[in-house]
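stuck on this:

***
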Amino acid sequence: MSIKKLLVSQPKPASEKSPYFEIAERYGVEIDFRPFIKVEPLTAKEFRQQRVSVLDYSAVVFTSRTAIDHFFHLCRELRVNIPETMKYFCMTEAIAVYLQKYIVYRKRKVFYGLTGKVESLFALICKHSKEKYLIPVSDVHNDELMQLLNTKKIHYATAVMYRTVSNEFSKDEKFDYDMLVFFSPSGIASLIKNFPDVSQKDIKIGCFGPSTAKAAVDAGLRLDIEAPTPDAPSMPAALELYLKKASGEKKNGR
């Protein structure tokens, strides 16, 4: 099998039970973890330039735990006291539960989508169409939810509260991977920025999410692994399917 060394563009998992470690042991591959991007908070001064007042809104929409962290960080820096009446709408239950880090969790003010998809969150928001929604986002974000909200004329505003920037690789750093795995369009952009003369050749590219896959194709890269799919709902599952097939083909002498 030609795949011996992989780069997963995410932080190293904290748990030893991560499926990535099981895959590495099962298929005898080396997996490095190195984010191509990092998230930085906006300063209070930068945020004020958007002329958005958090207290003008009755509900906040969170599509990630990162958004939660930066929302409450900025509120503290701005000395904004969030009222008890504020409602929170989250993409998934896991994101909703994460709110307990910052608020007293009460079901009457915390809501979440059931499928983890934008359509589910949108349907939930439509049931509370009288609220005024604030959506904390990165400087690079997906507008799919906002486009749906526009169709129903839901009152909302987006507020950039953090930015995504490229992690820099040193010029003499070894980059000898057989496969690269990405999770965002920003990661693809960082690859091109750090290695403008990159030639894919035999390097395999794996992408999670349609927007990441599109960014890879638009950058002229060949897409070898894509998730989620019905057979591979996660990137580790897609990676294992690929390695299992590649390993089987080698054993069969193909």
Summary: The longest strand covers residues 156-166. The chain has a mean pLDDT of 91. The chain is about 35% helix and 20% strand.
